[in-house]
Amino acid sequence: MEQQTITLGIAVCGAVTGTLSLFFTYRNYRRDRARLAVILEWDAEILHEVNSRKVQERCGHIIIRNKGRRPISVDFVGLEIPGRETYGLLTEEQNRGVKLNEGDSPLIVRVPQDYELKKYSHVWKKIRATARDNNDKWYTSRWTWIWGRPSWVE
User: Fold this and answer.
1) What is the pTM of this model?
2) Cβ(129)–Cβ(40) under 8 Å?
3) Burial, 36: exposed, middle or buried (Cβ in 10 Å; 0-12, 13-18, 19+)?
4) Which of 56, 68, 107, 118 is positioned for an S-S bond with 64, CB 3.0–4.6 A?
């Protein structure tokens, strides 16, 4: 009888530790994956010099941050506009891929708020920022209408 009790106790301990090990392994896997956070912000103000004069310009920003622990390369950043293909915004040298490590400063891509966007002012609530990583996984931003109407909307 005592040997059966000891065997049962060891079996229960093995089942508990095995389940805990599986839980912690899965949690580690979820935390260590490469993930991107994509944020779209409108109406940022930028000061720059033109002919030794300071000029203030409004533009949008797409902020891309690595949320995972693995390094990730961003191949494409653009705007997802309804009724049109995605609109790419990376420069030629960035098109080869921008590597983001854990803890690196975010990649900030400027979005010009000019006549190009004014023709999409009727669908401004559905415009989202999008980014693609080196594994061909797409990430999109949240809807921008939550934070208010941008200045370029007519």
Assistant:
1) 0.73
2) yes
3) buried
4) 107
